[in-house]
Write a structure and sequence with these properties.
The protein is α+β, with helices and mostly antiparallel strands. The chain folds into two domains: about 60 residues, no CATH class; about 140 residues, Tumour Suppressor Smad4. It contains three helices and 14 strands.
Length: about 220
């Protein structure tokens, strides 16, 4: 079939199609619209693929950042401590020469009393001896390296340092909790009650005087 472009309207004449300029213009407009639509859909598909790839890479990077460098040990503080430090636990009732930590509230799984494993260690959410996290308090507001406990055996002085935790550490003084400043040692006394995070409260039972006795004039 032959196509002839003339100045006359489209008519059927002897089996030939004669297309006028107006019809040809409309046809070209339709073809252009289809081409632009196809090109736009292609660009949108490419952008969507780039966005999906970016989300995947970002998610993998975040998961790798959150993943600890070493395997997570059992989160049960007592069983983890007893398994890895059996020689530090005296046979008489599970007592420790460094004192013990009594869990008062917070929904932490495990025993209510934990012997202090050494004169210096870290309290965190997951037990990790390679990073000196020797007491684990598995609760969502506890950071992986929440606070550092240290003691001086000669003077019987104890210190607690908040390691820049997300939800902080507070010591109860005169009936109310006072937040301790991150990375600054805070004196700790026998029978002091400490809040780690938003809900975990513990009592430190330590050799030495209580806060009221030590600060009494």
């Amino acid at each position: 079939m032959n196509w002839r472009i003339t100045a006359l309207p489209t008519i059927i004449d002897s089996g030939y199609w004669r297309v006028g300029p107006a019809q040809l213009g409309r046809a070209m407009d339709i073809i252009s619209a289809i081409w632009y639509l196809t090109f736009t859909l292609f660009i949108l598909a490419v952008l969507q693929m780039v966005y999906i790839i970016w989300l995947t890479l970002t998610r993998n990077r975040r998961e790798n950042t959150r993943q600890p460098s070493s395997p997570i040990m059992p989160t049960n503080p007592q069983s983890a401590y007893a398994t890895n430090h059996p020689t530090n636990v005296p046979s008489g009732g599970g007592r420790s020469a460094y004192g013990r930590l009594v869990i008062l509230s917070g929904g932490v799984r495990g025993p209510s009393e934990i012997p202090l494993p050494s004169s210096e260690f870290i309290i965190g959410r997951f037990y990790n001896p390679e990073q000196k996290v020797l007491i684990a308090l598995d609760e969502k507001s506890i950071s992986r390296r929440h606070a550092v406990f240290s003691s001086d055996d000669a003077t019987r002085e104890y210190r607690l340092i908040d390691s820049g935790s997300s939800y902080g550490t507070a010591i109860r003084k005169e009936g109310k909790f006072e937040a301790i400043k991150p990375d600054q040692p805070e004196r700790l006394y026998n029978d002091d009650v400490v809040m780690f995070g938003t809900s975990v409260t513990v009592r430190f039972v330590l050799p030495g005087d209580t806060r009221s006795a030590a600060t009494r004039l």
